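Each letter names a residue; the fold follows as tokens. Both lines appear below:
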Amino acid sequence: MGVGQFSSEGPVAVWKICPLFTGIGYGMCCISLYIGTYYNVIIAWAFFYIFSSINTTVPWDSCDNKWNTLACRKMNDLNCTGHGGLTTVNGSCVQEEDVSATEWKSLTHYTNNSKMPSDEFFHKYMLGISDGIHELGALRIELASCLLLAWFIVYCALWKGIKSFGKLVYFTALFPYVILIILLIRAVTLPGYMDGIRFYLTPKWEKLYEVQVWADACIQIFFSLGVTWGGMVTLASYNKFRNNVYRDALLVGLGNCMTSFFAGFVIFGIIGFMAHELGVKVEEVAAQGAGLAFIAYPEAVSRMPISPLWSILFFLMLISLGFGTQFSTTETVVTILQDEFPSLRGKNRRWCLLGVCGFMYLGGLLMITEGGMYVLQLVDNHAATYSALILGCMEIGVMSWCYGVDKFLEDLKFMLGFYPYPRLFWKWAWKVVAPMIVAVILILTATKYSGNSYGEYDFPSWANAIGWLITFSSIMFIPLVAAVKICQEQGTIVERIKKLLQPSYEWGPAARIYRSRHGAGYVKQGQDVDGSNMTLATVGSVPNTNTLIQEARECAMEPLDEVYEEDEEIVSSDDADDGLNMKALRAGQEKKSVVSRTSSKKSNK
């Protein structure tokens, strides 16, 4: 957040801080494309559940539907099994002596491999899941329509830019809390609630020795905050330069963790209720991922009075949470394209956004085929796990060691007026602790890799190979872009690399006023500065490079000066404190306003 606000640049342009690693920004864009593509598919699932819940009862309430198989069981046959009987598909309880040996053997088989109605609704009805990734099958038309609706909402939310998105975030951020409170009030009245809470709050210390637990926790933080695919950098680039980003970062981090902790009381309370209903332990009911949100929780909801209401509220909460992430992910891709191609700003933004949404929608269609669930799992495991960890490790390493954590802290002090407190904590956390933790988790996770699976299905080797191609498709930008940058430079290989490890001329506060107040310029890459081995040098202290630096600044800012002509008198105004991304929006709005007033005058004449 700090680097995005300081430079007012997006995830690619921000790497003027160390041009050799500009590929990290392109890797972030690639990850955002992957995540945005499959994340909206999950939102489409939630829409499907909402539409299916608009009825007197939820459709997964029984095993009497056309998609149900003989393995479907309502799981409320405790009295029957307690007396040595088995429940048939129509709910009848039979004893072994009441049926033939063949029928009893068949009933035993289906009972041992039984499925909940919510499980069959999810896999058989909504997904129509095939036998494996090798069998993609037909497109699920209902899901394609829900996916189109999801992307239409994303487009409408973002087509006016960050201002319309910023207003909508108030809803997507606050509405889930309202739903969570309503669901919590309902949950505490259910039998078995405390069993679920005890399971939720009781620590299992032995789990700390499992690498996968740490990897899942790391990925969860990366995913919820979007720290390795550019979302934070993108949104922070629109902040006012003097905004207290230190406070914002603390609030976002703590708010994210506290929200997850609070939501656990709702989810596990209802899971405890379901365990009570089934007469089993909570750990036998608890699931993760899609199994929790689309199977276990809907099954618990089906046992409540007015089940459609609780189902709709729950999935509305999922949708609002999902859109909060989806908006920022899509905006990241659009911002990167606009940074690379400035002509896409202004009126052309809506066409850029339409192209991005359309492209990601077409990619998502592959994940709503009959074998689409396997494709989604493959992309999720590789696009948002290994590559996210690698980019995270590279990002923090470059910022701390190549650019220098001390210089970055000085930049933050100039922007905020104070050092992030406590300074030593942040210095060593960024420099040593964070890179080491991420690197260790990455290495141990990779060494324990045993292929992808979904349920009892193991992915074939060729599918796992495609998964690794997905991982390296975002990582490969780092060496490729570095190679291109090196080839474009002059001098020996060592000299070229040294130049590219130093910030470019354009790095620093984007607004001309703050660049001058910063009082420092970045000298020509690779040029020695007497008396200092730092890239950052005070202009006045290096008279031989003074003219060179001033010319470089003017060249870098000339395109911006044409759009953002401003007097020193407006330094105190809000507009002068905006980042360049926000100024672009303001400029477009002002131009539109001028055209509107001109047209009005002509019509009056």
